[in-house]
Amino acid sequence: MKALIIFLLIYTPLVKAEDKKIYSEQEFRIKLEEMVKKEVEKRLTRSGRKRIVEFSHELFDKEKELTTRELGLKKKEDAILLRDKHFNERVKKLLEDQDRILGCIDANKKKEDTRILHMVQVISGMRPNNAAQVLSVQEADITVKIMGMLEPEKVSKIFNLMDKEISARLQKQYLTMEK
Question: b/e string for 138-161 if b means 16 or more Cβ within 10 A?
């Protein structure tokens, strides 16, 4: 088909000098299609082959349809690429946010660990009776963490000096504590 168009363009003067106009690319293609269609129809009609004329019309229509489909597929492909780009940007931003949040959590955990180490040093310096009173009123999780870092002898003295119910609850939590 394209060979026929090239042949017609080279060997047939389709546009007279006075008909010359400036067209956009799309207008040029439409005009060229019309002119080639007319010329092919004229030559095939002269040769007396009506079925071939109809066939050539069908071919032109099919080619036009295929071109339209191709443009539609290209637009869909471009839209998919654009969505993919936006999706990748959102994933990247999400990962950056996740890293930032995890960094904050790690920083808070380090600060908490530092404060607990400080409390361990303070409790280590106390007498067991005073330490038992302080740890009895503390939040159970913090008390268990502090006791997990104390020397075993000091922990046993503290447990012995605490109220029995509090001591039993803390010992149970101490035994199931995650390291």
Answer: beeeebbbbbeebeeeebebbbeb
What's the CA angle centered on 6, arms 5 and 11, to 5 degrees? 100
Which residue carries 């000091």 as its tokens?
154
In a domain, 89, yes or no: no
Token pair of 152 as six digits: 């075993």
Q: What is the pTM of this model?
A: 0.47
The per-residue pLDDT for range 66-92, each reduced to its tens digit, is 989 999 999 999 999 999 999 999 999
**Which residue segment(s) compose the domain that 156 sits in?**
126-179
Token pair 């026929």 is at which residue?
A: 4
Beta-carbon count within 10 A of 91 CB:
10
Dump pLDDT digits (tens) for 18-40. Answer: 556 676 777 777 777 778 777 77
* 165 domain-assigned: yes
**Cα(125)–Cα(145) distance, integer angstroms:** 17
